[in-house]
C-alpha cells in the first residue's frame, strides 16, 4: 500500500554528530508541520520545496532537539513522494524521541528497503538501479564502487534497453504479419529479423562475459589460508591486514577457529580466512577447528597453501594437498629467511602446482609476488582497468540475461527451420520477459518484495 506514510532512521545508530530521520508519504508535510517550529515561528506552508530549514522538533511546548529540516516535494524526491528529512543530533535519545513523536503523529515504521522500493514503484529508478544502490552502500573497494555507481547511473538499464528494442521491433514486425495474413513474410524480411536477433545475442554474450569479473568485484574472492600447524598462516593474515588480528605463537595448534577478514589487493576485494592448522589431533577443540578448516576449503574460491621451507615435506602437507583437488591454489613456501630444507622445485614436483612463491612473512620477502600471483591466477589485470564499464555483478541479472539469450537463439533456430511466426513470437515474448526481470518490469510482486527485504533499514 503506497497511501501510508513511512518513517525510519537513515543513519547508523550510535553516537555521531548527526542522525537522520526520513519520512515519506502523503502525510509527511502535515507531520512536519505539527512537530517542527522555526525560530521566527514561520508557518510551515511558507517554506519552499528543496530547502533546508533550521528549527526545533517540538512535542507541544517541549523542545526535543535542534535540527535542520529538508523538504522534498513529490515527485522530485528520492521516493517520488513528499519527503522530509530531519537532521537531528546523532545521539540515540534525540533520534528515538523524534521517531516516537513522528510515529505518534500517524507515520508507520518503514520496512527494510521500503524507501527505495517506493522509488522503484513510482518509476524513479528501475530494479537494477535499486539493487545497485545497496551494492554501493556495501561496496568493499574503490573498484567495487565503480561497478555499483555505473549501475546506479543506469548504464546497465541502457544496455538492456538496447537489446529490448531489437526484440520489440522484431516482435512488432512479426505480429503485424500475423495480424494481416495478406502480407507475406518475405525472405528478405526473415533475413533482416534474423540478423537483428543475432545482434541481440551478440550483445547479450558480451554482457555475460563480464559476469565473472563483476561477481568478484561485488562479492570479493573468498581466499582461505591453509597449511599444517605453525607454518605461518596467521602471521600471513596479519601481514596482509597490516594488523595483529590473529594470535601468533611458536606453539603448533595456536589457531583454533576460523577467522575472517576483508582486505583489498589493488582494488580487488578479498575475504581472507585464516584456519586452524590441519593435523590429526585428540584435542577436542582443535579437532572442531580442523573440521571447520576443511569446510572453509570447500567454500573458498582461492586457496593459499602455506608450507614451511625450514621443514621437510611430511604426511600432514600431503593430507592437506589431497583436500585441495579441483581448487585454485597458490602455494607459498614460507620462512625463506631460515635455512631451507624444502626447495621450490621439490614442491613443484610433489604438488604438481607450478605457482609456488618463496616468501618470508616475518622478513617481508616476496609478498608483492603473492599479490601478482593472485592477480595472475584470476586474470584480474584486465579487470582493474575495466571496472568503469558495465559489468554484470548480480547472479539474478546473469540468470535472466542467460535465459533471454537462449530464447533469442531458439527464435533464430525456429526462423531457420521455417517454423510458423506464432512460435517465433512466443520465443521473442519470453526473451522480452526475461530481460524485463533485470529492470523489474516483468517481475511479480512477491519476488520484488523479497529483493527489497534484503535492503537495510532506512534506505
Ligand atoms: N623465521 C620465520 N618465522 C616465521 C615466519 N612466519 C611465521 N613465523 C613464525 O612461525 C610461528 C608460527 O606462526 P603462526 O602464524 O602462528 O603459524 P600458524 O600457521 O598460524 O600456526 P597454527 O595456528 O598453529 O596452525 C611463529 O613463531 C611465527 O613468528 C617467517 O617468515 N620466518
Ligand atoms: Mg594460526
Automatic annotation (TrEMBL):
Binds 1 potassium ion per subunit. K(+) binds at residues 230, 249, 251, 254. GTP binds at residues 230-235, 249-255, 274-277. One of its GO terms (molecular function) is GTP binding. Its main location: cytoplasm. Its cofactor is K(+). Its EC number is 3.6.-.-. (6S)-5-formyl-5,6,7,8-tetrahydrofolate binds at residues 22, 85, 124, 459. One of its GO terms (cellular component) is cytosol. The keyword Disulfide bond does not apply. InterPro entries: G_TrmE (IPR031168), GTP-bd (IPR006073), GTP-bd_TrmE_N (IPR018948), GTPase_MnmE (IPR004520), MnmE_dom2 (IPR027368), MnmE_helical (IPR025867), P-loop_NTPase (IPR027417), Small_GTP-bd (IPR005225). Mg(2+) binds at residues 234, 255. Gene3D superfamilies: P-loop containing nucleotide triphosphate hydrolases (3.40.50.300), Probable tRNA modification gtpase trme, domain 1 (3.30.1360.120), tRNA modification GTPase MnmE domain 2 (1.20.120.430). Residues 220-379 form the TrmE-type G domain. GO terms for biological process: tRNA methylation; tRNA wobble uridine modification. It is found in: Cytoplasm. Belongs to the TRAFAC class TrmE-Era-EngA-EngB-Septin-like GTPase superfamily. TrmE GTPase family. HAMAP family: GTPase_MnmE (MF_00379). Exhibits a very high intrinsic GTPase hydrolysis rate. Involved in the addition of a carboxymethylaminomethyl (cmnm) group at the wobble position (U34) of certain tRNAs, forming tRNA-cmnm(5)s(2)U34. Homodimer. Heterotetramer of two MnmE and two MnmG subunits. This is tRNA modification GTPase MnmE. The gene is mnmE.
Amino acid at each position: 500500500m503506497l497511501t501510508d506514510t513511512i518513517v525510519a532512521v537513515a543513519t547508523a545508530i550510535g553516537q555521531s554528530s548527526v542522525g537522520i530521520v526520513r519520512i515519506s508519504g502523503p502525510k509527511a508535510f502535515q507531520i512536519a508541520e505539527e512537530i517542527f517550529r522555526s525560530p521566527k515561528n514561520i508557518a510551515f506552508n511558507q517554506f519552499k520545496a528543496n530547502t533546508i530549514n533550521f528549527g526545533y522538533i517540538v512535542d507541544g511546548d517541549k523542545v526535543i532537539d535542534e535540527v535542520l529540516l529538508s523538504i522534498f516535494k513529490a515527485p522530485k524526491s528520492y521516493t517520488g513522494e513528499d519527503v522530509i528529512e530531519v537532521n537531528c543530533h546523532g545521539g540515540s535519545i534525540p533520534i528515538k524521541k523524534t521517531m516516537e513523536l513522528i510515529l505518534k503523529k500517524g507515520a508507520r515504521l518503514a520496512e527494510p528497503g521500503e524507501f527505495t522500493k517506493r522509488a522503484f514503484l513510482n518509476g524513479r529508478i528501475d530494479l537494477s538501479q535499486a539493487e545497485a544502490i545497496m551494492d554501493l552502500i556495501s561496496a568493499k573497494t574503490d573498484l567495487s564502487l565503480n561497478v555499483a555507481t555505473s549501475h546506479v547511473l543506469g548504464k546497465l538499464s541502457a544496455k538492456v534497453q538496447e537489446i529490448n528494442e531489437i526484440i520489440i521491433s522484431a516482435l512488432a514486425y512479426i505480429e503485424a504479419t500475423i495480424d494481416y495474413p495478406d502480407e507475406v513474410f518475405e525472405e528478405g524480411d526473415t533475413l533482416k529479423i534474423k540478423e537483428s536477433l543475432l545482434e541481440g545475442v551478440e550483445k547479450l554474450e558480451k554482457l555475460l562475459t563480464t559476469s565473472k569479473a563483476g561477481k568478484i568485484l561485488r562479492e570479493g574472492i573468498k581466499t582461505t589460508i591453509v597449511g599444517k600447524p605453525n607454518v605461518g598462516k596467521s602471521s600471513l593474515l596479519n601481514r596482509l591486514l597490516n594488523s595483529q588480528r590473529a594470535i601468533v605463537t611458536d606453539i603448533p595448534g595456536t589457531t583454533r577457529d576460523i577467522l575472517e577478514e576483508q582486505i583489498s589487493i589493488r582494488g580487488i576485494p578479498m575475504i581472507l580466512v585464516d584456519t586452524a592448522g590441519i593435523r590429526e589431533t585428540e584435542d577436542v577443540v582443535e579437532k572442531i577447528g580442523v573440521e571447520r578448516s576443511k569446510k572453509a576449503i570447500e567454500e573458498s574460491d582461492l586457496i593459499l597453501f602455506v608450507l614451511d621451507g625450514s621443514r621437510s615435506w611430511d604426511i600432514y602437507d600431503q593430507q592437506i594437498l589431497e583436500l585441495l583437488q579441483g581448487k585454485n591454489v597458490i602455494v607459498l613456501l614460507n620462512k625463506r629467511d631460515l635455512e631451507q630444507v624444502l626447495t621450490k622445485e621439490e614442491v613443484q614436483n610433489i604438488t604438481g602446482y607450478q605457482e609456488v612463491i618463496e616468501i618470508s612473512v616475518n622478513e617481508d620477502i616476496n609478498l608483492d609476488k603473492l599479490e601478482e600471483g593472485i592477480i595472475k591466477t584470476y586474470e584480474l589485470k584486465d579487470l582493474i582497468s575495466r571496472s568503469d564499464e558495465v559489468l554484470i555483478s548480480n547472479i539474478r541479472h546473469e540468470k535472466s540475461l542467460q535465459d533471454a539469450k537462449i530464447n533469442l537463439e531458439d527464435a533464430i533456430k525456429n526462423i531457420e527451420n521455417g517454423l510458423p511466426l506464432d512460435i517465433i513470437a512466443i520465443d521473442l515474448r519470453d526473451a522480452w520477459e526475461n530481460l524485463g526481470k533485470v529492470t523489474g518490469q516483468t517481475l511479480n510482486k512477491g519476488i520484488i518484495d523479497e529483493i527489497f527485504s534484503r535492503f537495510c533499514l532506512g534506505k
